[in-house]
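Chain entry —
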Amino acid sequence: MSSTAVFAKASPLDALQRWLPRLVLAPSVLIVLVGFYGYILWTFLLSFTNSRFMPSYKFVGLQQYERLLDNDRWWVASHNLLVYGGLFIAISLVIGVFLAVLLDQRIRREGFIRTVYLYPMALSMIVTGTAWKWLLNPGLGLDKLLRDWGWEGFRLDWLVDPDRVVYCLVIAAVWQSSGFVMALFLAGLRGVDQSIIRAAQVDGAGLPTIYLRIVLPSLRPVFFSALMILAHIAIKSFDLVAAMTAGGPGYASDLPAMFMYAHTFTRGQMGLGAASAMLMLGAVLAILVPYLYSELRNKRHD
């Protein structure tokens, strides 16, 4: 039998082997293209229209973005995001790294303690917001409990204080996410070459110096991963605000995600909501693109 005949007989099977992985992945790829990138593109188009309760395709240029930038509530939400996001990311990183360093000392009951710190991450933001709403409620939670115990001068009414309510969101978010940061850094610390630490100890370096100048600087990829994840959580925070404060009092604790939902689905201003969603996407990309560029550049150098 000639080689041409053998190739002709084998070709259908070879073709099936080549196309089978693509056929298996095709539904997932289609769902991502339509359900993710397709809706991003659709939202982008709606942000240039006069859509209200229902989508409309009457092009109005940058009018929705101009209305958005003239909206006081949007600027309050943006300011709240800077305060909430900055404090949430910074405090979560500090607490997470501190807990990871402590657990890296191979303390007793490490598994139990790690589980306790990680447990809040297993809860949804709705549950977290509801629980902290009760704890910080001046008439039901810690404020009432301590005053009933005799601390008459104690006041913890941040939840109803327009100037402090955003810090309640920070407390709840940090409580839930700092354990996740701890897990990331603990995994990174367990991957550090112990010979480097022993060499530093032989040279007389103390434990704080070893961690601050040797170990933690080597965990730069872990730091950037944690920073990117926390920033993403902060920007898209909606369920925590909805469960804990609903944006109140007034809209003092509004965040861009809450603003987008309210104007798109309850106020009949879909075009304005789409414009706010695109600015939120821009904020995510402003964090993600430099990170990816840095990682790709480092890989090229390596």
DSSP finds 13 helices and no strands in the chain. The two ends are 51 Å apart (CA to CA). The chain has a mean pLDDT of 85. Residues 294 and 300 are 10 Å apart (CA to CA).
